[in-house]
Amino acid sequence: MKVAISPAEAAALIPDGATLLIGGFMAVGSPHRLIDALVAAERKDLTIIANDTAMPGRGIGKLITARAVRRVVASHIGLNPETQAQMIAGELEVELVPQGTLIERIRAGGVGLGGVLTATGLGTPVADGKRQIEVDGKTYLLETPLRGDFALVGCHQADYVGNLEYSLTAHNFNPIIALAADVVIAEPRSIVPVGVIPPDAVKTPGILVDHLLERAPS
Amino acid sequence: MNDKERIARRVALEVERDTLVNLGIGLPSLVANYLPDDVHVFFQAENGVIGLGARPPEGMEDPDLTDAGGGFVTAVPGAASIDSAMSFGLIRGGHLDMTVLGGLQVDSHGHLANWMVPGKMVPGMGGAMDLVAGARKVVVAMVHTAKGAPKIVPDCTLPLTALRRVDLIVTEMAVIEPTEDGLVLREVAEGLSVDDVRAATGAELLVPVAPGQMRLA
């Protein structure tokens, strides 16, 4: 049985300078109320590991606009001109990682693997400074694990023990980041009694979830 | 017929029935409009759906159902929603039959550059590097020149997307197949000559057999 916490209480758990894994793809499936609470709490110097920085005024884009972020690790920043402007001005450090490599690096961090071997990025700037390893005659890049201090997970619903269910393309990074952080905070749209989510529909077992965000005001 | 429609209609002929296909955003996404009725495929959107469908009716959009460009979509009967690890596992693992991507440059080695222009445009590679490295067949759909300058060049001057040789280049002027020996001109658009295509191409084009007229779906 989890105790639901408010967005402000959740934000208070997260210090300036923390490394956050945040779910969502162009803001679809992002934990929107947690993001709003971090902006309201005027967090600074965050490192954000996420697929993208969405667009200004939406999802992770709000944290960029609020200048809450010092470093971004993402696969795509093209639809957020503010990310690009802050990067060019030298105010924001951006590490671009191929999307499939990014999710596997996070998965590796979450499941106790020492890294990932992938052909993605060979012959490109992504390979600069990385070890190449040959296995059975094929060359791969060694990509190292990623973890966060906190994972902020958006989901469709949660039950009282923290089991999470996702919806359609709002899965994206969420089920994977839930494995790869010291503290996992889930933001469900609704919280339902235990048993409402059938075991087969649970994508993130409640044992991974430390905190549930309270339901949205109706 | 405009250039983009011509390209999309030609690429549509490359799509085989009962396959899994990923179309890039922009021009490549037009290919879906020209598939023959008897060619059933599942389209993948790498943000997490197999069985991408058309745009929903006004007012019926589901905020949790979008394509990789963030636009609202539907899902067809038989669709599956998946997380990003599964989605890219399918791409890298050889389970994706074909991808169609736009290009900034393709060179005589069949190398594609399509993700950044240093100092000008740094949007990030998104899924492009995984798609080119992992898809069974990679088709580049792009206009032949940019402001008159060839996009098919001896060696890419822009950072590469992958070392993998792409399988086919389709432009409004021609269909070109990168091979071990170089770029082979396979088809030329109606009304154009081989010399017309050569004049608009920066790399050498091999013509081992007379090219056919560019086919269109």
UniProtKB/TrEMBL annotation, chain A:
Keywords of this entry: Transferase
The keyword Lipoprotein belongs to this UniProt entry's keyword annotation: no
Family matches, as Pfam families: CoA_trans
GO molecular function annotations of the record: CoA-transferase activity
Membrane spanning stretches: none
PANTHER family associated with the record: ACETATE COA-TRANSFERASE SUBUNIT ALPHA (PTHR13707:SF60), KETOACID-COENZYME A TRANSFERASE (PTHR13707)
Family of the protein in this entry: Belongs to the 3-oxoacid CoA-transferase subunit A family.
UniProt protein name: Acetyl-CoA:acetoacetyl-CoA transferase subunit alpha
Automatic annotation (TrEMBL), chain B:
Source species, domain of life: Bacteria
Swiss-Prot/TrEMBL keywords: Transferase
InterPro entries: 3-oxoacid_CoA-transf_B (IPR012791), CoA_trans_fam_I (IPR004165), NagB/RpiA_transferase-like (IPR037171)
Keyword Transferase: yes
One annotated GO molecular function: CoA-transferase activity
Keyword Transferase included in the entry's annotation: yes
Gene3D superfamilies reported in the protein's UniProt record: Glutaconate Coenzyme A-transferase
Transmembrane segments: none
PANTHER family: ACETATE COA-TRANSFERASE SUBUNIT ALPHA, KETOACID-COENZYME A TRANSFERASE
Family from the record: Belongs to the 3-oxoacid CoA-transferase subunit B family.
NCBIfam families, sorted: pcaJ_scoB_fam (TIGR02428)
Annotated protein name in UniProt: Acetate CoA-transferase
Organism: Marinibacterium profundimaris
Lineage, uppermost ranks: Bacteria, Pseudomonadati, Pseudomonadota, Alphaproteobacteria, Rhodobacterales
